[in-house]
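Database export, one record per block. Field names are fixed; values are copied verbatim from the stored entry.
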Amino acid sequence: MRQIVELTAIKMVPPKPYGAFHLMFFIVGMIVCVYFAKKLSKTSDKQNKILLFFIGLFLLIIEIYKQLFYFYVVNNGHYDFSVFPFQLCDVPMFLCLIVPFVKNKKVEEAMYNFMVSYNLLGGFITFLEPSSLCRPYLMMTLHGFIWHLVLVFVGLYLAFSNRCLKSKKDFLTSVRVYGFLCVIALLLNVSLRGISEGKLNAFYLGPSISPIVIFSDISSRFGWFVNMIIFVSVITLGAYLVYLLFYNKERIKLFVKGKVSVGLKNES
Protein backbone atom coordinates (compact mmCIF):
# COMPACT_ATOMS: atom_id res chain seq x y z
CA MET A 1 0.00 0.00 0.00
CA ARG A 2 2.80 2.38 0.90
CA GLN A 3 4.50 1.86 -2.45
CA ILE A 4 1.27 2.52 -4.34
CA VAL A 5 0.61 5.75 -2.45
CA GLU A 6 4.21 6.90 -2.84
CA LEU A 7 3.91 6.52 -6.63
CA THR A 8 1.36 9.34 -6.57
CA ALA A 9 3.51 11.65 -4.42
CA ILE A 10 4.20 14.20 -7.14
CA LYS A 11 5.80 17.28 -5.63
CA MET A 12 4.89 20.77 -6.79
CA VAL A 13 5.44 24.38 -5.86
CA PRO A 14 2.30 25.26 -3.88
CA PRO A 15 0.01 27.40 -6.07
CA LYS A 16 -0.17 31.03 -5.09
CA PRO A 17 -3.49 32.31 -3.75
CA TYR A 18 -5.21 34.16 -6.60
CA GLY A 19 -2.63 32.86 -9.02
CA ALA A 20 -3.49 31.20 -12.34
CA PHE A 21 -4.07 27.72 -10.87
CA HIS A 22 -6.34 28.98 -8.09
CA LEU A 23 -8.42 31.33 -10.25
CA MET A 24 -8.80 28.82 -13.10
CA PHE A 25 -9.93 26.07 -10.77
CA PHE A 26 -12.26 28.40 -8.89
CA ILE A 27 -13.93 30.05 -11.90
CA VAL A 28 -14.29 26.93 -14.03
CA GLY A 29 -15.29 24.88 -11.00
CA MET A 30 -18.03 27.33 -9.98
CA ILE A 31 -19.44 27.38 -13.50
CA VAL A 32 -19.55 23.59 -13.57
CA CYS A 33 -21.12 23.43 -10.10
CA VAL A 34 -23.88 25.90 -10.98
CA TYR A 35 -24.59 24.18 -14.30
CA PHE A 36 -24.96 20.68 -12.88
CA ALA A 37 -26.73 21.87 -9.74
CA LYS A 38 -29.44 23.40 -11.93
CA LYS A 39 -29.42 20.49 -14.34
CA LEU A 40 -30.02 17.96 -11.57
CA SER A 41 -32.39 20.05 -9.47
CA LYS A 42 -35.49 18.20 -10.74
CA THR A 43 -34.44 14.80 -9.44
CA SER A 44 -36.96 12.63 -7.62
CA ASP A 45 -36.50 11.81 -3.95
CA LYS A 46 -35.11 8.39 -4.84
CA GLN A 47 -32.69 9.82 -7.40
CA ASN A 48 -31.69 12.54 -4.93
CA LYS A 49 -30.71 10.01 -2.27
CA ILE A 50 -28.79 7.89 -4.78
CA LEU A 51 -26.92 10.96 -6.04
CA LEU A 52 -26.00 12.13 -2.54
CA PHE A 53 -24.94 8.64 -1.48
CA PHE A 54 -22.51 8.32 -4.40
CA ILE A 55 -21.17 11.80 -3.70
CA GLY A 56 -20.57 10.70 -0.11
CA LEU A 57 -18.90 7.51 -1.37
CA PHE A 58 -16.64 9.52 -3.66
CA LEU A 59 -15.66 11.80 -0.78
CA LEU A 60 -14.99 8.78 1.43
CA ILE A 61 -12.69 7.19 -1.15
CA ILE A 62 -10.61 10.30 -1.70
CA GLU A 63 -10.52 10.94 2.07
CA ILE A 64 -9.13 7.44 2.70
CA TYR A 65 -6.52 8.18 0.05
CA LYS A 66 -5.67 11.47 1.77
CA GLN A 67 -5.29 9.77 5.15
CA LEU A 68 -2.97 7.13 3.63
CA PHE A 69 -1.00 9.82 1.82
CA TYR A 70 -0.39 11.80 4.99
CA PHE A 71 0.41 8.65 6.96
CA TYR A 72 2.93 7.17 4.50
CA VAL A 73 4.30 10.12 2.53
CA VAL A 74 4.02 13.27 4.64
CA ASN A 75 4.53 11.78 8.13
CA ASN A 76 6.57 8.65 7.34
CA GLY A 77 4.34 6.11 9.07
CA HIS A 78 2.99 8.31 11.86
CA TYR A 79 -0.59 9.49 12.15
CA ASP A 80 -1.11 13.25 12.06
CA PHE A 81 -4.19 14.24 14.07
CA SER A 82 -4.26 17.63 12.36
CA VAL A 83 -5.88 15.87 9.37
CA PHE A 84 -8.37 13.89 11.48
CA PRO A 85 -11.52 13.84 9.28
CA PHE A 86 -13.91 15.74 11.51
CA GLN A 87 -13.86 19.36 10.46
CA LEU A 88 -16.86 21.36 9.30
CA CYS A 89 -16.05 20.63 5.67
CA ASP A 90 -15.80 16.89 6.36
CA VAL A 91 -19.38 16.60 7.61
CA PRO A 92 -21.08 16.32 4.16
CA MET A 93 -19.17 13.09 3.55
CA PHE A 94 -20.90 11.48 6.53
CA LEU A 95 -24.30 13.08 5.91
CA CYS A 96 -24.42 12.11 2.23
CA LEU A 97 -23.54 8.52 3.09
CA ILE A 98 -26.37 8.16 5.62
CA VAL A 99 -29.07 10.05 3.68
CA PRO A 100 -30.56 6.91 2.05
CA PHE A 101 -30.97 5.29 5.46
CA VAL A 102 -32.68 8.23 7.19
CA LYS A 103 -36.42 7.58 7.40
CA ASN A 104 -37.39 10.62 9.48
CA LYS A 105 -38.25 13.42 7.05
CA LYS A 106 -37.52 16.18 9.58
CA VAL A 107 -34.05 14.79 10.27
CA GLU A 108 -33.40 14.50 6.54
CA GLU A 109 -34.44 18.11 5.93
CA ALA A 110 -32.31 19.29 8.87
CA MET A 111 -29.30 17.64 7.22
CA TYR A 112 -30.08 19.40 3.95
CA ASN A 113 -30.54 22.75 5.72
CA PHE A 114 -27.14 22.33 7.33
CA MET A 115 -25.35 21.35 4.12
CA VAL A 116 -26.68 24.43 2.34
CA SER A 117 -26.30 27.07 5.05
CA TYR A 118 -23.06 25.93 6.72
CA ASN A 119 -21.23 23.70 4.23
CA LEU A 120 -21.88 25.78 1.13
CA LEU A 121 -20.54 28.72 3.12
CA GLY A 122 -17.47 26.73 4.19
CA GLY A 123 -16.75 25.45 0.70
CA PHE A 124 -17.03 28.90 -0.88
CA ILE A 125 -15.06 30.80 1.77
CA THR A 126 -12.18 28.35 1.51
CA PHE A 127 -11.66 29.50 -2.08
CA LEU A 128 -11.51 33.11 -0.92
CA GLU A 129 -8.67 32.23 1.47
CA PRO A 130 -7.12 29.19 -0.28
CA SER A 131 -3.81 28.88 1.58
CA SER A 132 -4.97 25.63 3.25
CA LEU A 133 -5.64 24.13 -0.20
CA CYS A 134 -2.25 24.95 -1.73
CA ARG A 135 -0.01 22.02 -0.83
CA PRO A 136 3.50 20.97 -1.92
CA TYR A 137 2.03 17.79 -3.42
CA LEU A 138 -0.12 17.79 -6.56
CA MET A 139 -2.58 15.14 -5.36
CA MET A 140 -3.20 16.85 -2.02
CA THR A 141 -3.72 20.19 -3.74
CA LEU A 142 -6.21 18.59 -6.16
CA HIS A 143 -7.89 16.84 -3.23
CA GLY A 144 -8.48 20.12 -1.42
CA PHE A 145 -9.76 21.99 -4.47
CA ILE A 146 -12.04 19.18 -5.64
CA TRP A 147 -13.37 18.50 -2.13
CA HIS A 148 -14.51 22.06 -1.57
CA LEU A 149 -16.00 22.32 -5.07
CA VAL A 150 -18.08 19.24 -4.23
CA LEU A 151 -19.34 21.02 -1.10
CA VAL A 152 -20.36 24.00 -3.21
CA PHE A 153 -22.12 21.72 -5.70
CA VAL A 154 -24.04 19.84 -3.01
CA GLY A 155 -25.16 23.08 -1.36
CA LEU A 156 -26.28 24.64 -4.65
CA TYR A 157 -27.97 21.45 -5.81
CA LEU A 158 -30.01 21.10 -2.61
CA ALA A 159 -30.93 24.79 -2.67
CA PHE A 160 -31.97 24.78 -6.33
CA SER A 161 -34.03 21.63 -5.81
CA ASN A 162 -36.06 23.41 -3.07
CA ARG A 163 -35.45 20.65 -0.55
CA CYS A 164 -34.46 23.00 2.25
CA LEU A 165 -34.36 26.52 3.75
CA LYS A 166 -38.01 27.28 3.11
CA SER A 167 -38.66 29.04 6.44
CA LYS A 168 -36.95 30.48 9.52
CA LYS A 169 -37.62 27.23 11.31
CA ASP A 170 -35.52 25.47 8.68
CA PHE A 171 -32.53 27.66 9.49
CA LEU A 172 -32.95 26.92 13.19
CA THR A 173 -32.72 23.20 12.44
CA SER A 174 -29.39 23.77 10.71
CA VAL A 175 -28.18 25.68 13.79
CA ARG A 176 -29.19 22.73 15.97
CA VAL A 177 -27.25 20.34 13.74
CA TYR A 178 -24.22 22.62 13.92
CA GLY A 179 -24.51 22.88 17.70
CA PHE A 180 -24.77 19.10 18.03
CA LEU A 181 -21.68 18.61 15.86
CA CYS A 182 -19.78 21.27 17.83
CA VAL A 183 -20.42 19.32 21.03
CA ILE A 184 -19.04 16.15 19.43
CA ALA A 185 -16.03 18.08 18.09
CA LEU A 186 -15.25 19.61 21.46
CA LEU A 187 -15.53 16.23 23.20
CA LEU A 188 -13.11 14.75 20.65
CA ASN A 189 -10.65 17.62 21.13
CA VAL A 190 -10.65 17.28 24.91
CA SER A 191 -10.71 13.47 25.17
CA LEU A 192 -7.97 12.96 22.55
CA ARG A 193 -5.86 15.97 23.52
CA GLY A 194 -3.14 13.83 25.12
CA ILE A 195 -2.99 11.25 22.34
CA SER A 196 -3.00 13.87 19.60
CA GLU A 197 -0.54 16.11 21.46
CA GLY A 198 -2.93 19.00 20.93
CA LYS A 199 -2.95 18.63 17.14
CA LEU A 200 -6.59 17.61 16.99
CA ASN A 201 -8.69 20.75 16.81
CA ALA A 202 -11.99 19.61 15.31
CA PHE A 203 -14.15 22.51 14.09
CA TYR A 204 -11.29 24.76 15.37
CA LEU A 205 -13.07 25.15 18.69
CA GLY A 206 -10.14 24.53 21.05
CA PRO A 207 -8.70 24.06 23.55
CA SER A 208 -5.78 24.20 21.09
CA ILE A 209 -5.01 27.57 19.54
CA SER A 210 -6.96 28.14 16.34
CA PRO A 211 -4.82 28.09 13.17
CA ILE A 212 -7.21 30.45 11.37
CA VAL A 213 -6.12 34.01 10.67
CA ILE A 214 -7.53 36.55 13.19
CA PHE A 215 -8.98 33.76 15.34
CA SER A 216 -5.46 32.56 16.19
CA ASP A 217 -4.79 36.02 17.64
CA ILE A 218 -8.06 35.95 19.58
CA SER A 219 -7.20 32.50 20.96
CA SER A 220 -3.74 33.59 22.04
CA ARG A 221 -4.89 36.83 23.65
CA PHE A 222 -8.25 35.97 25.20
CA GLY A 223 -8.16 32.17 25.45
CA TRP A 224 -9.71 29.37 23.47
CA PHE A 225 -13.15 29.57 25.11
CA VAL A 226 -13.69 33.22 24.14
CA ASN A 227 -12.45 32.40 20.65
CA MET A 228 -14.87 29.47 20.43
CA ILE A 229 -17.87 31.67 21.24
CA ILE A 230 -16.82 34.30 18.70
CA PHE A 231 -15.93 31.75 16.03
CA VAL A 232 -19.20 29.83 16.34
CA SER A 233 -21.14 33.11 16.26
CA VAL A 234 -19.34 34.33 13.14
CA ILE A 235 -19.84 31.01 11.32
CA THR A 236 -23.52 31.01 12.25
CA LEU A 237 -23.93 34.61 11.08
CA GLY A 238 -22.39 33.64 7.74
CA ALA A 239 -24.70 30.63 7.49
CA TYR A 240 -27.66 32.92 8.20
CA LEU A 241 -26.68 35.17 5.30
CA VAL A 242 -26.55 32.11 3.02
CA TYR A 243 -30.00 31.13 4.31
CA LEU A 244 -31.36 34.62 3.53
CA LEU A 245 -29.96 34.43 0.00
CA PHE A 246 -31.68 31.16 -0.87
CA TYR A 247 -34.81 31.77 1.19
CA ASN A 248 -35.38 34.94 -0.81
CA LYS A 249 -34.00 33.72 -4.15
CA GLU A 250 -37.27 34.15 -6.05
CA ARG A 251 -37.76 37.63 -4.62
CA ILE A 252 -34.18 38.56 -5.50
CA LYS A 253 -34.76 37.42 -9.10
CA LEU A 254 -37.79 39.69 -9.35
CA PHE A 255 -35.86 42.57 -7.77
CA VAL A 256 -33.03 42.18 -10.29
CA LYS A 257 -35.62 42.28 -13.08
CA GLY A 258 -37.06 45.47 -11.60
CA LYS A 259 -40.42 43.96 -10.75
CA VAL A 260 -40.27 44.46 -6.98
CA SER A 261 -38.60 46.99 -4.72
CA VAL A 262 -39.51 45.81 -1.23
CA GLY A 263 -37.22 44.18 1.31
CA LEU A 264 -36.46 40.55 2.04
CA LYS A 265 -39.05 38.22 3.44
CA ASN A 266 -39.03 37.88 7.19
CA GLU A 267 -42.12 35.79 7.85
CA SER A 268 -41.84 32.37 9.44
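Remark 1: The chain is about 65% helix and 0% strand.
Remark 2: The first helix runs from residue 2 to 7.
End of record.
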